[in-house]
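Field reference: sequence -> structure
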Amino acid sequence: MSINNDVSLVGCIQVSTPQNRLVLIGGGHAHVQVLKGLNKNNRPENIHVTLIDSQRCASYSGMVPGCVAKLYSPEQTLLQLEPLCRWADIEFIHDEVTDIDMENRYISVGYKNEKVPFDVVSFDIGCR
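Structure field:
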């Protein structure tokens, strides 16, 4: 879809010539699908994706019953976020979000309050 021939839409993210920053907070099931869908081969060049999670892996809840039944080890039920981000050429920040400034569009991360700018932010943090 084109708007005025210089802006297009990808999903719900407006894409234009400047860099657009999508920040995903939490590595849950939905964000894992976003990582796979916006991998380096499918992602428009002007979209930068960052995943922020305090864990390096997430438990895939669909495999937990099999783990309880001893069909899988606990390690086999984990989604490894860091290697997935490397494969997709997506920035991974292993740290905790400490603040979100919606007005100025940045997320503070870690005890140093590193500022991560965003245009679009999505939350998939489960029951934490």
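Note: Helices lie at 29-37, 64-68, 81-88.
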